[in-house]
Amino acid sequence: MTTQIDSELATDVAEALEVTGLRLTADQVRELLQGEDELVSELEEWGVDDTELRGQLASLLSQRLLGEPWPTYGDIARGKGEDAFHQRLQQAAIARGYEVVAP
């Protein structure tokens, strides 16, 4: 069963994901969340302002675009380049038709 994502939730998720430097349309959000029924249910219950859920959204976006999770503070502290990550994320996003904005 796939959860339907209403326009308000799709808009809220798109706005929350702008911190990643990407602007998604409602349709792109629906595509991103396709098959993520548990996450959608949690978003409906707790809202997109929940810090943990925002992290899950960013990581899901990164997984879909790059095949890797969003970097953690520990990753950055261990020398994984945050700038290089964002460049790769933006390139992958542009290739998928996402709009790049300043985070």
User: Averaged pLDDT, please?
Assistant: 88
Low-confidence stretches: none
* Order of H and E elements: HEHHHHHE
Count of the separate structural domains: 1
User: What is the overall number of helices?
Assistant: 6
Main sheet strand line-up? 1-2
Biggest sheet character: 2 strands, antiparallel
The count of DSSP E runs of length 2 or more, i.e. the number of strands, is: 2
Helix content: 55-70%
Q: Strand-residue fraction?
A: under 5%
Shape: globular
Radius of gyration (Å)? 13 Å
Kindly, what is the distance between the CA atoms of the first and last residues, rounded to a whole number of angstroms?
Answer: 34 Å
Structural class: mainly alpha
Account of the protein in words:
This protein has 103 residues and is mostly helical. A two-stranded antiparallel sheet has the order 1-2. α1 (7-17) crosses α2 (26-33). The chain has one domain (7-96). The protein is built from six helices and two strands; from the N terminus they run αβαααααβ. It has helices spanning 7-17, 26-33, 37-46, 51-66, 73-77, 82-95; strands spanning 22-23, 99-100.
